[in-house]
User: What shape does this take?
Amino acid sequence: MRALAVRGATVRLGAVVTGDPAVLKAGQTRRRDTVLVPARVEEVEFALGTTRRRRVRVPVLLLADDPAWRPLVPSQRVRLTARLVTPRHGELLAAVGLVRGPPALVGRPSLLQRWASTIRSRLRAAASRLPADQRGVLPGLVDGDTSLLAPELADAFEAAGLTHLMAVSGENLSLLIGAVLMAGRFTGLGRRAVPLLAGLAVFGFVLVARPSPSVLRAAVMGSVALLAVVTGRERRGVPALCAAILVLVLLDPELARSYGFALSALATAGILVLGPPWRRCLTRWLPRSVPGRLLRRMVGALAEPLAVSTAAHVACAPVLVLLDGEVSLVAVPANLLAAPAVGPATLLGVLAAAVAPGSLPLARLIVLPAGLAVGWITGVARLCARAPYAAIDWPAGAIGAALLTAALLIGALVLRRPGARRVAAAAAVGAAVVVIGGHACAPGWPPRGWLFVTCDVGQGDGLVLAAGPGRAVVVDTGPDPHSIDRCLRALRIRAVPLLVLTHPHADHVGGVPGVLRGRAVGTVLISPDSEGEERRLLVGRRVVTAGIGDVWSAGSLTLRVLGPLTTLPVSTRDPGTEVNNASVVLFAQWPGLTVLLGGDVEVEAQQTLLAAGLPHADVLKVPHHGSSHQDSDFLAAVHARIAVTSVGAHNDYGHPAPSTMSLLARLQLRAYRTDRDGDVAVIQSRNGPAVVTRRVGHR
Assistant: This one.
């Protein structure tokens, strides 16, 4: 298989699906959704002079563009034709298969997998009448199914450090085993029958949740604990964890390079090693620090969850830095606040999942109180994610992990000495006063009187033009729905009377679903030169083509169409320059402010616009992300005072070009760019247009 992948051969495969398909949404580099299907190839047929067939047994990843791949479940056998390529990032795969068309199904999935899929689908059906947040999170708590989870809520869980709740790891399994043991003892089952029942629960849990790294680790840990119950020996957490890691890595060596498995094991190790001494210290110190017996008892009860949350977070922090380049400051309080609701939500969800295949109405009743508990968890996630400085930037990669580890070790040494603790506490209070004071004095967001915002959507354009309270015209949407949705939510935009898509490149239209998410969207304006590829994202919407000289009004905003002045139809299959020059060019005007929006027009189109007459503007949205393809006379003719470049950090295109930035400096424009300044808002002030920026993280 690897030899065929190196040759880029097109082959006929017989394979078995080994995991749930995942959908990779269309974006800047993908025009269509891609379905990722983990599979095991058992037969390969290829032509090498003559047609040959070989029996094999190797893991592959299938990348398909047909939606028929989405509902497949593990153990389903399929036949397909694929072009093989080698894995790019060193995955333990024989090949990656690029698949066109639907799969040819061979037989049915196994009985157990059909049973597991039925439970998962029936639980989703039972939760379908809950509010959107609750029906998205509840299946994740029970079986790791996050298919209904809204992207912006997933971002909130990540920012708050609560993503692990939907990883169905040790915490979920311990709750389930505890409930089974309690029920067994309450019903009078024997000492040996109860562990057997718990063992069946563990098996069912793994089957329904699918054997992901965290689930397997939790299952092995649970099995070790059950063995201790059966033999009557004292349970020892650290040896059990070591046994789990050793057995799982021997069975599946790929786990050795799984971040999820590493985080799961580290969190458990932190709880086992750091948790007990920290709990003892907190138990001694917390009650003494507050007056009143009842209050001391209440505060003392926080020692256990506080020690557990802090230990798990500290143990995982260096690996999280490798992934995100950020350090969360709200993860511990978020987990403390969410902890009381996790148990009821998980156990009621498991009960609903068990009941749903037999009685969906009863399951819908059971999920109602579970939904209340989930509502508390989602509220905590949103609240903590919105907190100022919820996460701080930190050097990414191995250097960042090493620095954070050193900082944690130094912090642990400092906390062991009373004098050093007092100095550290004073420094922390001083830093908090400075940060909070700076935040209180800084302009709020959205800034009062904003008219034009360039959203930090990465390598793309996402522009918002004020059109009244809660209303805005949106010009382009960036490559990613999450980013433009985040920006519009921060600006409190509920209605978009006009959506303009300047040209059909993915970095300008890929975020359309984010604009449509929960907002009233009116007319959609596209380039007259476009073949209409944008329409696939706009089913059921009123789409019109821009006409030269057309004027659109929304509130105090007036938009005039200046271009494109060409008449050559283009599509994304054409060279980039032709599509860029087909961009809709707009002149936006409010009382006291004018903005020229040039899309991605390059030198040829800029010269044509200049020859046709170019209005002066206060603000210039620099065309094509500040690329080197700029006409200096065009930029000078705008006579702008402010230039804003929408560009992604560390992009592969070299945008913005140093030559363009130098040209803007020579023209004495105040230059802002989203990769460094974040969201850029233009407001009115006594001295003319002013700029307020907001950093929202790297993209």
Remarks:
- The longest strand covers residues 34-48.
- The CA atoms of residues 174 and 678 lie 43 Å apart.
- The chain has a mean pLDDT of 83.
